[in-house]
Amino acid sequence: MCLEDIIRAQTHGYPERLQPKMNLRKAECLVTLGKLQEASQTVSDLESDFAAKQTLAASSFQILQKNLHRLKKKVQEKESLPETFPPTLAKAFEDMDLKEENEQISSVSPSVSLCTDPLKGRCLIATKDILPGELLVKEDAFVSVLNPGEMPHHSLENKWDTKIAIGDLYCHRCLKHTLATVPCDGCSYAKYCSQECMQQAWEFYHSVECPLGALLLTLGVFCHVALRLTLLTRFEDVGKVTSKLRDEISNNISFPKSKNLVKMLNYDQEENDEVVKTPIPGCDISGKYENNYNAVFNLLPHTENHSPEHKFLCALSVSALCKELEAASSRALATGPNSSKLKATVTPELCADLNIWGVAMLRHMLQLQCNAQAITTLQHTGSKESIIANSRQVRLATGIFPVVSLLNHSCSPNTSMSFTSTVATIRAAQRIRKGQEILHCYGPHQNRMGVAERQQKLRSQYFFDCSCPACHTEELRTAAGPRWEAFCCNSCRTIMQGDDVLSCGNRSCTESVSRDHLVSRLQDLQQQVGMAQKLLRSGKLGDWQKSAAHLQKSLRVVEARHGPSSVEMGHELFKLAQVLFNGFAVPEALNTIQKAEKILLVHCGPWSDEIQELQKMRSFLLDLPPIPAGPLG
Ligand SMILES: [Zn+2]
Ligand SMILES: [Zn+2]
Ligand SMILES: [Zn+2]
Ligand SMILES: [Zn+2]
């Protein structure tokens, strides 16, 4: 990617003064990629270039010379030592995966155990002290469906970007970012990263989904997840689950009425009272909890909490889907078993199972409201030529992660979650003491919403009243007085009171100020942040000092809003580090890189793009000869 950028920049008239620096960077990329032949070619080109032109300022010439020398050595080292990882890299690799698996729960670190609490139900508890950044859960989705239609780019700067939807950029099976997709022969909608992904998808679910494309888009992503879940299960535990269901159905004479269907779905809870062998729902006989259909099936459907309208809509969607499946199956039979691609999965056997499938799908539809997990990714926005990568989080897909679903909610969670294709990774975001519960945020985070809005969201979607510490203290504070619209006294930090003229709430303090004055200062600050963002987007090298100054201000705003160790703060520090790096402000850049790295390591792990970039920047800066801070040239 870096190389492409360089070639693009060179063909678009990059200033000649900076050409040597760029070529050096190119050589560096080539060395990192292991293209040693090309790298040494670039290096020798550079050398002859230096000899021909003496136009460079002495100081920058020295820097380039020194780096050139270093690169040459690197090429030689690499040539003599092929394909071995330096020890620091190897150590970071280990951290990508769980060093040891938990014996009780798959995909989980041994520092955690599964417990049940009479009030909260299932929960994960730390069995020893956990350090920030420690990997706690790494789980592949049991099922995932790409979200249809959301536009990844909203900028109108580039006409082409706005026409690309998520479905065109990511593999519909493994969610890998792909530019050259392989489309399905049957529908133009499903696209894959490779022939292999396409075949796998076809074999496991797409042969059934393909002719239902339009219906699935209409019914929504939850319905699609429920269908794919049952299709995937056909190849796994279908026997076990359907026989359980069949017993229930044969005991129920008036089966086809949906009223009874919904009631019937509670059967496993009644059963659990009698069966003492599996004390924790979702575990197998030996008490192990795994990423399998049994665990998915035991996620709570909250049947009693859903509104009748919601339950009716779910039942309607499922029956529409079953009707369509039945029709597709009989069409396949009519055209003969050999002439249709559908024969692989839609057979008379499927029709017989359809009733059982319908029940299972309805249960999954009801589970999804509380158990669906949004799979997100950081999407890089802003143009390629800009120095600073701008990024925002987009909802890529909807999935079910039975192990992640064991975690309860907190509005100020002690973990941080990220995704790589369909794999969810949860790390400790702070020190977690032995005996404390592992918590993550279901969406309403204290940094993004006030307490009233969070409580309302959690109650309507997840059916519980949040009593996390953040909600507790914030409710007390809200009861005491307003928070978001208040100003602090400049000298004693007490909340100011009054309408047009604000005076300090502290009686021994005499500060007073007009509201207009404060509001205009606030607007100034917001303008500064906007300016910084604009300068960053335009990405002119000469403006780096201005950009840095604006960013410092925006950093203070982000810190106040999201907290000093939030992931938002990490992204902001990353931007500042890039600006300082590009301006060759060495001590400031190193300092900022360290701060950004500390925060992002905890949230994103050692192999995230940003951490990698930060480490590259640092090693580059540390290799520079000691020169006074300031821009090059
Ligand atoms: Zn793929
Ligand atoms: Zn298709
Ligand atoms: Zn809360
Ligand atoms: Zn005061």
TrEMBL record:
<dbReference type="InterPro" id="IPR052097">
    <property type="entry name" value="SET-MYND_domain_protein"/>
</dbReference>
<dbReference type="InterPro" id="IPR002893">
    <property type="entry name" value="Znf_MYND"/>
</dbReference>
<keyword id="KW-0963">Cytoplasm</keyword>
<keyword id="KW-0479">Metal-binding</keyword>
<keyword id="KW-0862">Zinc</keyword>
<dbReference type="InterPro" id="IPR001214">
    <property type="entry name" value="SET_dom"/>
</dbReference>
<dbReference type="InterPro" id="IPR044421">
    <property type="entry name" value="SMYD4_SET"/>
</dbReference>
<dbReference type="GO" id="GO:0008168">
    <property type="term" value="F:methyltransferase activity"/>
</dbReference>
<feature type="domain" description="MYND-type">
    <location>
        <begin position="171"/>
        <end position="210"/>
    </location>
</feature>
<keyword id="KW-0808">Transferase</keyword>
<dbReference type="InterPro" id="IPR011990">
    <property type="entry name" value="TPR-like_helical_dom_sf"/>
</dbReference>
<dbReference type="GO" id="GO:0008270">
    <property type="term" value="F:zinc ion binding"/>
</dbReference>
<dbReference type="GO" id="GO:0005737">
    <property type="term" value="C:cytoplasm"/>
</dbReference>
<dbReference type="InterPro" id="IPR046341">
    <property type="entry name" value="SET_dom_sf"/>
</dbReference>
<dbReference type="GO" id="GO:0007507">
    <property type="term" value="P:heart development"/>
</dbReference>
<protein>
    <recommendedName>
        <fullName>Protein-lysine N-methyltransferase SMYD4</fullName>
    </recommendedName>
</protein>
<dbReference type="Pfam" id="PF01753">
    <property type="entry name" value="zf-MYND"/>
</dbReference>
<keyword id="KW-0863">Zinc-finger</keyword>
<comment type="function">
    <text>Protein-lysine N-methyltransferase. Monomethylates PRMT5, modulating its transcriptional activity. May also act as a histone methyltransferase. Plays a critical role in cardiac development. Acts as a key epigenetic regulator of gene expression during cardiac development via its dual activities as a methyltransferase and negative regulator of HDAC1.</text>
</comment>
<dbReference type="GO" id="GO:0032259">
    <property type="term" value="P:methylation"/>
</dbReference>
<dbReference type="Pfam" id="PF00856">
    <property type="entry name" value="SET"/>
</dbReference>
<dbReference type="GO" id="GO:0005634">
    <property type="term" value="C:nucleus"/>
</dbReference>
<dbReference type="GO" id="GO:0042826">
    <property type="term" value="F:histone deacetylase binding"/>
</dbReference>
<keyword id="KW-0539">Nucleus</keyword>
<keyword id="KW-0489">Methyltransferase</keyword>
<keyword id="KW-0949">S-adenosyl-L-methionine</keyword>
<feature type="domain" description="SET">
    <location>
        <begin position="110"/>
        <end position="443"/>
    </location>
</feature>
